[in-house]
Specification:
Helices cover about 20% and strands about 35% of the residues. By secondary structure, the chain is α+β, with helices and mostly antiparallel strands.
Amino acid sequence: MKSSISKRVSLGILLILLVSFIQMPIFAYTEDSICLYSNNGEYIIYVKDVLNEEFEFAFSDKKDESEDNLEFISSELDSSKDAINVAYVNNQLLYKYFLEDSKSYMFVRNSKGEMVVSGDEINLDDTISNWIVDYVSSTTKRIETKVDSETLVDTTEAIKDTELSLNTVRVADYLEIVPKDGASYEYYLVNINDSSDAKALFDMAEEMNSSEKDMYNSLVDAYDFYRQLSWIEGNIEDWTPAEDNKIYQPIESETGDKYLVIIKEDTGEDMTFDAKFMISKEHDELKYKNDLDKIIHTIVKLPVTGESLALVIGFVVVIAAIVVVLFLRKKSNKESK
């Protein structure tokens, strides 16, 4: 009787989030609020504790300004499908509170008249712009890749003192870059257990993919993810040329191993970065055969299941739909109270 053992290792691809390396501000949000600079020039401020209720807000150049001296303005609704209540800075407020060298502070009181934000500094130079969110939502679209496989190892060995033989086959998935004319490609691949920065980024991506959050926390997550990925891209020193435009999974990869891959595309005029998130999966199949080569018993060890690609892409689309086109539903012409 002969026995053959076939071993297949495949790499499940999680295509999550993409960014390019662009200089970013250090902070774009406070403990209570986050400010988005939209494509049409409006500053929209999401206040953590009053997203789902009407509120009033005011600005001052004094952090400890008396509530009696503040000129409160009613919140507006943003353009998202959930119609979230937001504070804002229009031209009138911009010229009144934000063009001097002094600092500006925000005050917010909820629908019950309770002060929920008191003296938060608002710096309009430190905002999340829609181009940051655009990069986050353009996952896998910067540098096109496809997944294929190739047999790396196919060996058969006789097992000593038996009539059995051991056949080992290792088939590796790889990313194949769909190249642009005249472009060259390099990549950086790291097991996240070997890099605290890569692990932090991967953990962020999985957290973002696995939970639904309100607008404030969604924007915070997108911004933090962008900062982390930008940091990694800007500090890579050892790039590997993508020979034949292929990036192979490591031969030593085992079930559950997680890898971060950064791809760099250089056209001679422009440079683009892409990020791919990978989880290794292992499939073992043992086939026992008799002398007539008939399979008499098969054991299959199921692979570890990774996140659904559909869920990953779905999350990105949701974020894009919520954030990318945000603006005020109507221009505010309300008088200060």
